[in-house]
């Protein structure tokens, strides 16, 4: 049963990264253009999802907080 839970977690992470990549505007992409990130996600699902989660997009600034230059 634990094996199935791991597969479900990996699938959820992959689909989250794929949908998030598709919905993210090109101006917030880091390191690669959108097509590049989609290719990485399709070719390397687990590593691509982890890479997207950690390196893929810039975080949006929080309102009321000064940005660090």
UniProtKB/TrEMBL annotation:
Alphabetic keyword roster: Cell membrane, Membrane, Transmembrane, Transmembrane helix
Domain (Cardiolipin synthase N-terminal): residue spans on this chain: 12-52
Localization per record: Cell membrane
Pfam families according to UniProt: PLDc_N (PF13396)
Membrane-crossing segments per the record: 6-23, 35-52
Topology of this chain in the membrane: Multi-pass membrane protein
Keyword Cell membrane: yes
Record's GO cellular component terms: plasma membrane
Top-level lineage group: Bacteria
Protein name: Cardiolipin synthase N-terminal domain-containing protein
Species annotation: Streptomyces fagopyri
